[in-house]
Amino acid sequence: MRGRMMSKPLTITEIMAFADRHHGNSEIVSITADEGLHRATYRDVFARAARVAAVLESMGFNEGDRIATLAWNDHRHLELYYGVSCSGRVLHTVNPRLFGEQLVYIINHAEDRALFFDPMFLPLVEGLADRLPTVEQFVALCGRAAMPDSKLPRLECYETLLDNATANVDWPALDEQSASALCYTSGTTGHPKGVLYSHRSTVLHAYASALPDVMQLSKRDVVLPVVPMFHVNAWGTPYSGPLTGAKLVLPGPKMADGETLHSLIDGEGVTIALGVPTVWLALLEHLRTTGKTVPSLDRTLVGGAACPLSIMREFEERHGVTTRHGWGMTETSPLGSVNVPVEDPSSLNEREHDEQRVKQGRALFGVDFKIVDDANRELPWDGKAFGDLKIRGYWVCDGYFKAGDGAVLDADGWFSTGDVATIDASGFMKITDRTKDVIKSGGEWISSIELENLAIGHPDVAEAAVIGVDHPKWTERPLLIVVPTDSSTIDKAALLDWFKGKVADWWIPDDVVTVATIPHTATGKISKLTLREQFKEYRFPT
Ligand code: AMP
Question: What is the CATH number of domain 366-434?
Fold first, then answer.
């Protein structure tokens, strides 16, 4: 027997329609390159999103077409979030920090038909444009006065397009399973892989992220996503903000600038800020050196990489700010778990409190996880047994974009995260290692395999391995470990120079260590686990 309840599709359009009617006056404050601190309301932004949809229509883009952005967090990017997705097109948020070759691959693989970019990325776009045959239209995200001089073909000015567009759009009735956004994540081997979010997965993720034991969002909150809108949709805040009516504060290109972050937090009354550990170092250092405080800030959600205890302590002890440590992946939209204590922390001694808060937290409703051994047998939740972390749920991907039927789920429908974890009796998950061969520096992936392949190409190198080693600022940085060829000695500087121009500068290892042999597993692969153990005490030269 069917229930007698209305059936309404879970679409981002519904979030927009609701926020427009019920939270229309909530504010969106952004830092922009051409307009300084820009203030708007949700109502303004949605009205402009309608114009974005009209522009896309007039350019001949169809439902399902990918529209790319190379942009920071600001109101224009938010307008594209809604204008593109709610008109049935797919918003492809491209990470400008990637190396040129990767950008070319990603944009061609996505077959993006238009690229909207912040003018500061113009040199990057000009350098790539010849190799982007699918891109029919370039749009600079600025007003006429800030339009850069460029020979880029088919370049339009965003504000002029919007000024000339009709304000009336009939938003299409979308199937909730239709694609809304696309975000590429680094592959362990091979090319980046596209994670294609749906309207339904996005709405459910936004709902869940507002819950008390997750972000605890309400209309009274002021949310500062310091995580970029090109990284897993800024952890869903462009949707959970409007869903709850919270005010949004968008820092534009000033993501890692402590002074700007402080002035936004203090000036706008930010109550919750979100980002990877690295960005908080900049803020905390600024507060330490200036003696400034952040009285409005109640909590931070820190994730994307393990949050060091020192950050949590400094936030709590000096500023009375609670850190919620979260875990997730591009493939999981991203929220999988958040650490909010289930018992009063004052009932724990300091060591217990510290051990507890560095865990990655409990699953939120909508996802489920488990740990398994090599034979895929589930391991106990005793806080000791560790195994591969698997996850499934409403906002977990079941395959990559244009990857055919390439199965990413096991026979029981679980997604393998490539992380190794323990889970304790209260359901708190703790990441202990990673089986995937990648390094995460400042929240961004570096492929160790790509670096190893390049190192092997150097005439003095017989064998090479790259591992991530703890770093106080970037969480992890790559260390290159090499076995020299018989006749050679390694010149560190020359070897590191070898990578220049072949990968992004920030991918280049921080140091080189020469060894006689590199350990291998039984199947002949480099044993990264052994190497990580061997170099546990290693510290980069300062
Ligand atoms: P991404 O797809 O870029 O969001 O990266 C996801 C990966 O980042 C996870 O699979 C983990 O390896 C790592 N990660 C994310 N959050 C955390 C965390 N809180 N602690 C440790 N590693 C994390």
Answer: 2.30.38.10
